[in-house]
Amino acid sequence: MELIDPENLELIEAILLPEPDPPMRMSIGLVDGYPPTDYTDHSDGGAYWEMRQVVGEAPVEGRETVNLLMGLKADGAASMEGAVVSYEYKGDSYRVETTNRFRARKQCGGDD
């Protein structure tokens, strides 16, 4: 797992989580702080968060759907053009580039 063209941005951790049942968590979004309290302080007592697996160590079965969660640390104005996920399947190596771009400003509505 690596960031594409990061500027002032650090990848703290990348994890996989199974799809929640029932769906109750935002799949794409931004929260302040890591780990996100929406995942850790939920009515399930944190059981959902305990199912996390570190990217690069987690086996994912074919056709299995999982959520990718990235903990990012911005140092002021920051950005990235996407992320690269590398994996192996049946002995072959693959590389997927996401299209999720990220921009952080020092202050909402600011010029940076």
Provide the descriptors you would attach to this structure in a database record.
112 residues, 44% strand, 7 strands, 2 helices, flat, 4-stranded antiparallel beta sheet, mainly beta, 3-stranded antiparallel beta sheet, 7% helix
Question: How many structural domains in the coordinates?
Answer: 1
**What's the helical proportion of residues?**
under 10%
Taken as a percent bin, the fraction of beta residues is 35-45%
Largest sheet: 4 strands, antiparallel
Give the number of helices.
Answer: 2
Total E-strand runs: 7
Uncertain regions: pLDDT < 50 for 5+ in a row?
A: none
Element string (H = helix, E = strand): EEHHEEEEE
State the shape: flat
Mean pLDDT: 81
How large is the radius of gyration?
Answer: 15 Å
Describe this structure in words.
7% of the residues lie in helices and 44% in strands. By secondary structure, it is mainly beta. It has one domain (2-104). Strand 5 and strand 6 form a beta hairpin. The protein is flat and about 40 Å long.
Layout: helices, strands, pairs:
Elements (H helix, E strand, L loop, with lengths): L1 E3 L2 E12 L18 H4 L6 H4 L2 E2 L11 E15 L1 E8 L2 E6 L4 E3 L8
Antiparallel strand pairs: 1-5, 2-3, 2-4, 4-7, 5-6
